[in-house]
Automatic annotation (TrEMBL):
Official protein name in the record: Type I restriction modification DNA specificity domain-containing protein
PANTHER family recorded: TYPE I RESTRICTION ENZYME MJAVIII SPECIFICITY SUBUNIT, TYPE-1 RESTRICTION ENZYME ECOKI SPECIFICITY PROTEIN
Organism: Weissella paramesenteroides (Leuconostoc paramesenteroides)
Residue span, Type I restriction modification DNA specificity domain: 7-173
GO molecular function: DNA binding
Keywords assigned: DNA-binding, Restriction system
Keyword DNA-binding appears in the UniProt entry: yes
UniProt cross-references to SUPFAM superfamilies, sorted A to Z: DNA methylase specificity domain
GO terms for biological process, alphabetical: DNA restriction-modification system
Family per similarity comment: Belongs to the type-I restriction system S methylase family.
Length: 187
């Protein structure tokens, strides 16, 4: 059986996604913090937990925005610029994160993987390789190559997710074996 030929198209991210960033509640207001709402910061976009929580009043009286499990999270500022992941928790984001949600039936996993693969190019083009800030308008203007057939896009996204999971498992096993060998040979 011959593999099917995939037809690709280039589309600006803003034409098939909705995106927004959040804000940080005033740190001088202790009643804004310590609640039940996870407050996801850019270093935590690939984490299933956070150390900081907001109250309902903190969320309501700030520009922080809610994201859902499965939304694409893209780091805009500082040392984490260009990092991307899929939200593993329902929570609020600050201004350093751009939430991206497909609107045309596209696959979040595929888009996230495309953004991850393009990180070096994006950083070199827009930050000239140095630490700095990206903007939502830069990210939204990126041209993404996607399969015309959405089923192909979902298959590719699913395959890339499986590969990522295998890499994670192998890294965990490698770390375990390394620790075992260190313990064994230092006795």
């Amino acid at each position: 059986m011959c593999p099917s030929i995939i037809t690709w198209e280039k589309r600006k991210l803003e034409n098939f996604t909705k995106s927004y960033s959040g804000g940080t509640p005033s740190v001088s207001r202790s009643d804004y913090y310590g609640g039940e709402i996870p407050f996801i910061r850019s270093a935590e976009i690939n984490s299933d937990s956070t150390n900081l929580y907001l109250t309902e009043i903190g969320l309501k009286n700030s520009s922080a925005k809610m994201v859902q499990y499965g939304d694409i999270l893209y780091a805009l500022y500082g040392a984490t610029s260009g990092e991307v992941g899929i939200a593993r928790i329902h929570g609020a984001i600050n201004q350093a994160i751009l939430a991206i949600k497909p609107t045309e039936g596209d696959d979040s996993q595929f888009i996230m993987q495309w953004l991850r693969k393009q990180k070096g190019h994006i950083i070199n083009t827009y930050l000239q390789g140095g630490q700095g800030n990206l903007s939502g308008s830069i990210v939204k203007s990126l041209e993404v190559r996607t399969p015309v057939n959405k089923n192909e896009e979902f298959k590719i996204g699913s395959l890339l997710k499986k590969i990522d999971n295998l890499i994670t498992v192998n890294q965990d096993q490698s770390l375990t074996l390394t620790m075992f060998s260190i313990c064994t040979f230092t006795l």
